[in-house]
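ok trying this again, last paste got cut off
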Amino acid sequence: MESSQLVVIEEIRQKWRQDPFLRLLAHYCSLTERQLEALLIEASEETGELKFSEKARLMGITKGSYARILSQALRNISQSLFTVILLSYVGLLNDDRQRWFIELGEAVREGRIDDAILLLEEMQTRLRKLSK
């Protein structure tokens, strides 16, 4: 295993510790930290040629655990996508209701993280009101 691959893993972990927006998103998403780490390892060009067992070793786990974590991550992503499609299909994500989602995406792309956090907090407040 090359040192550049170990650097990739350390960069992933460093970003996790230092990026408050990443931590906020990760806290409320359907992925665990380990699942996100496995997905990032899979997506990295530096680790693309590694065998499953080598990727598992980067995370300090067995090949079987790596496979399970990756499988769970992919299942969570699939379920999240189907949820968004379902909400759109039944009319709960129409133009007016999804505007915040588009604004959030624009804020993140443009690096306006404070605006993105405010939009997320606003969305959470609305969801809490709906559940009462």
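PB: full thing came through this time. The chain is about 80% helix and 0% strand.
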